[in-house]
Amino acid sequence: MSGSTAREIAASIETGIRQGHLNPGDGLPTVRAAAAVLRVSPVTVASAYRLLKTRGFVSADGRRGTRITQAPALTLRHSAPLPEGVRDLAQGNPDPDLLPSLAGALEAVDPAPSLYGEYANLPELIEVARLDLVADGIDASSLAVVGGAADGMERVLGANLRPGDKVAIEDPSFTRVIDLMGAMGFTPLPIAIDEFGMLPGALGGALDTGANAVIITPRAQNPTGAALDANRSKQLLAVLAMRPDVLVIEDDHAGPVAGPSEEAGVLTLCADRLRWSTIRSVSKFLGPDLRLAVLAGDPVTVARVDGRQRIGTGWVSHILQQIVAHLWSDPKAPQLFARAKASYSSRRESLVDELMKRAIAATGRSGLNVWIEVAEEAETVRALMQRGWAVAPGERYRMESRPALRVTSAALREGEAETFAEDLAAILRPQARTYSA
User: Fold this and answer.
1) Which residues on adjacent β-strands are paired with residue 167?
2) CB atoms within 10 A of CB 347
3) For the CA atoms of 220, 223, 224, 226, what is the dihedral angle to 10 degrees?
4) Percent of the chain with pLDDT over 90
């Protein structure tokens, strides 16, 4: 750590992160200790720490002090190969067997090259997306094609907000949403959730403190599997109606395979709003490597997103758009999506049921994951690894919520839910104690 101004001090710490001298979880000196070493005012150090927090490099954790975040925006994360025989329930991937084959779509791609000055959005893709969104009650009069859900969120936020603005996000939340807050200089306001999504009272409190935007997942919430029901949707709509100027972004990343099994469609919170966007990624129902999402929104937001994209990348690959349009419009697609939705629901519900039988609380109404609260994340993750299970620690997803594990139920095979639940129960079960006379 070096420097005499807040920016210089912050830059020196960023350099330490980038060069690997500071790692996720490492603590920084207290403000007073750092000020004494650097011979600057504590106010200067505090300002440096605030800059780092705004950029997503550090977090303040009460008595634990200021620490390097688990995914600072300067670092690249690479998944280490799992030991042989360990089942991977950590990655959040869809089941490859439930994704459509690309063979037919690749054969259907027009080999003629696309050139500058042509259309940005493939009409066939726009039409199939429009029909899908309208069927879910979403206004699809203004659409844009973007490079996935996170790309869409970044573009919508950038089109409407400025650094320093407050954004209400779910807690726990998808890791890239948390990372975006820091990378774009926004102030995240964590909103507590339960199995039905954001708690209305918590959202109302965030709006009262000046939230400029809300990012919400209507179904298949990552990591908890939360999904809105009619009652929660009604409550949240009433809260949002008090602030019609607030930007609402819906991250509908799982689309038609989300579930829950007893419900159809998506309960949107964007109807009749001044500023809004619903982003539907294809990664969970067509494949993660198809880095594409269709973004619906108010005309001003969509125009800004489209205009900014033209200045930068220009357009999403027309080859990719052709593949997605072919797969999405295939007459067999609805049947495939229904099969995937039913399978994911069955695996998810089976795991939750097996955990409940062993008095282990878990949530997972929708999507590909189940969220399990535990007392100690790191120890439980290590113990499960020793028993042949790789799961994701909840720390990367949490801000103020309690420790937990994210388990990708979509990856479970027949009979594994019971085995996993029994192994976890054995780990969490209090150890018997022997006392001597």
Assistant:
1) 188, 213
2) 23
3) -30
4) 78
